[in-house]
Design goal:
- Helix content is 71%, strand content 5%.
- It is mainly alpha-helical.
- It has 2 domains: 96 residues, no CATH class; 114 residues, no CATH class.
- Helix 4 crosses helix 5, helix 7 crosses helix 9 and helix 8 packs parallel to helix 10.
């Protein structure tokens, strides 16, 4: 009987490869005319969203990256049937949200017409926010997005929501005032973020712009 070393398998990336294979299987089963390059892009794009979803479902979201990956890998190995059910649940929503939230553009003028410039005030404020606090806000935003079945483009959408909430604080309190609110009244910040998530959940509008370049393997990502 062959001996399977879980620790070694997880350190060597077994969990990641298994997740990629699960996504590939589901992408290839879509009733759409996708060439190999398009399928590979979708798999790459979806991977981090699936990883976040599983970490959330298994209560691993607050672990550091290496520990989270290791614990997730162990669950994939020891309870694959449960993981497969979660992947199916996630993928059904992910496809819906991909079609709903992601817009493809094919030329510079179209993309530029939909860009919104990041406020320098937001950038200045972000530099003053402790990294641990900012990371916590983004994690909390991702978790609430997933609770609302907003499971596509989590990195981009959560960053957009946090920045939008910070911009509102700057407009209301000034840059220094916004920083004081972040330090002294996180409840207000969280409520602003929650309201923005609820606004998003109540609409079908695209949130992410992907600029498509012919023969380019890495499309540009921007926010609308």
């Amino acid at each position: 009987m062959a001996y399977f070393d879980i620790d070694t398998a997880c350190r060597e990336g077994f969990g990641d490869r298994k997740l990629v294979a699960m996504i590939q299987q589901r992408i290839s089963s879509l009733d759409e005319d996708l060439d190999q390059g398009e399928q590979e892009f979708l798999v790459s794009y979806a991977y981090q969203d699936l990883r976040y979803y599983l970490l959330y479902k298994f209560g691993l979201f607050n672990l550091d990256n290496n520990d989270a990956s290791y614990e997730l890998c162990k669950r994939i190995i020891r309870n694959e049937d449960s993981v497969v059910r979660l992947v199916d649940e996630w993928f059904n929503w992910w496809v819906i949200k991909w079609r709903q939230r992601v817009r493809l553009v094919f030329n510079e003028s179209e993309q530029k017409g939909n860009e919104t410039g990041e406020s320098q005030s937001i950038e200045d404020l972000i530099k003053k926010i402790p990294k641990r606090l900012l990371d916590k806000l983004r994690r909390e935003t991702m978790i609430e997005l997933m609770r609302q079945n907003e499971v596509c483009s989590l990195d981009i959408v959560s960053d957009f929501i946090v920045r939008s909430a910070l911009n509102d604080l700057i407009n209301e309190y000034s840059k220094d005032g916004a920083l004081r609110v972040l330090v002294t009244d996180m409840t207000e910040v969280r409520m602003r973020i929650l309201r923005k998530i609820m606004e998003i959940s109540s609409t079908n509008k695209p949130l992410v712009i992907l600029k498509v370049k012919i023969n380019s393997p890495q499309p540009y990502q921007g926010m609308s």
